Fold:
Amino acid sequence: MVLAIALITLASGCDWREAHQWDETERRELTSLSLAALEPLAANPTNSVGDSERAQILGHRLFFEPRMSANNAVSCASCHQPERRFTDGVEVSVGLGLTRRNAPSLIGIAYSPWLYWDGRKDSLWSQALEPLEAANEHGSHRLHVALLMYEPDYQPAYEEVFARLPASLLGLKEKALRAAPQHHEDWAAQWSALAPDNRTLVNQIFANVGKAIAAYERLLRPGVSRFDRYVAAIVADDSKLASDMMSVKEAEGLKTFIGVGECTQCHNGPLLTNNSFHNTGLLSVPGATPDVGRIQGLHELQVDEFNCLGAYVDSTEACDELRFVKTGRELLGAMRTPSLRNLQGTAPFGHAGQFADLAAVLAHYNTALDAMVGHNEAKPLDLWPWQLEQLEAFLRTLAAPPAVDEKWLQNPHFLTR
Amino acid sequence: MKKEGTRARFTQVRTAVLCGLLLSFANDDIRAADAAPGPSLQGRGEHFVLTIEPELEPIKINRMHRWRLHLRRLDGTPVNDAQISLIGGMALHDHGLPSSPRIEPVGSNGQYLAEGVKFHMSGQWQMLFTVETVAGVEILTVELDI
Structure:
């Protein structure tokens, strides 16, 4: 009996030691994935107010502002809910109508050069503009958004951050126009009827609204997770703390993650994403046309008047990602690699919420069937069921609340209305 | 090992030569010296020597950066009139570079600048430099371990 207990103890001890032992190469890889390796968020020269506190406060209000929508009920926070790590818990988001994509978390998104699953936007601020006019999201138009800044509860805050609002647009308020260049035939006609100078002014205010929202979103940084504490313990050779931070099962999953799973090919760096585009054969929604992904997103990006080389940027000095953007057929069916730092409570997963849970995601990559469109870059993982369970257990250790003051997670309008 | 931040190593240069209107074709394996200790990477073809100096040293994944290139003939004469294009990819993963680098001449001493270079994965990358001159075309395939 004593011998049996000793053998069991020895065996578990061996498991423990093996699971938490990492060679120098592995330690470097772990360190590269740790939040400690995350560099300070670089300024975005296209948005000169990106780190302004006043812009953050204004952007916070705008992010939660339902009056920018056609029915006064939809805001950015409708689909990017702080209590769900800025996702919405449904397969595809619902605004005024049903969208075709799953809402990604916004935590750490400021580090990505590309926004949306297909990367059709190249800055946080230009991304923030599109939902406002999308018929199935806010369903609004840019003239309405611009004129909202003339309301008494917005004008002082707006003018503190940006320039004085031009009086020339005030006359449009009484006309009850609906003006936007896209999405709606009547609105496009009214947009074309505006004087060119007024169109430029509206676009400038509209862009500034996006820039304020972006200033707020830049605050949404990832928090230190159990995984990060584990890596710190490993680097410090504190085996006791390491074993407190991560179970044997989770550590085995981590070994698979950086080892035979080759997950770090795409999910690399401290945010566990290369922010690039890959076709991994994600299935389309049943009954829907296969999503062509990046190849369409690239086209939209290049003709977007609010892109990095457009007229509404504060500087074009940091537009190399757009200048040297990848093109070609390889982008067919490719989607942006998502961060893995916000998986807890953010199901379903995939660009159309195809996967109900993490197990379903891993099952997909374990078989890696041919893509319906384009070419599947992923090779089958061929992992054992218990390895998949370990991998899933590890992925859950990456979760952490965002490293942001609680006040930024609250709806500021509850206090003022 | 294929690790982030690992010095890019110029491990092999295969040279395919097409002179004029594809007058000849050659495929040659040339072992280039490892980059250490200096930052330069160098490849030698049948007609040209291409020296590559990444401005980001060591090369890191997910970071767009520039490469300074120096092109000369085997006798050391600088080549100023070449058009150089660059494509790259990972054979193991069936994909190309995550960007579209462009190369332009700078100055008059055989110097060129490659802008928009980026890698998004660790591992073996193949970089194909197509060097076009009035005398012909030479394609250098450079393998990098990032």
About this structure: The first strand of chain B starts at residue 10 and ends at 19. The CA atoms of residues 19 and 69 of chain B lie 22 Å apart. Chain B has one domain: 10-70+78-121+140-145.
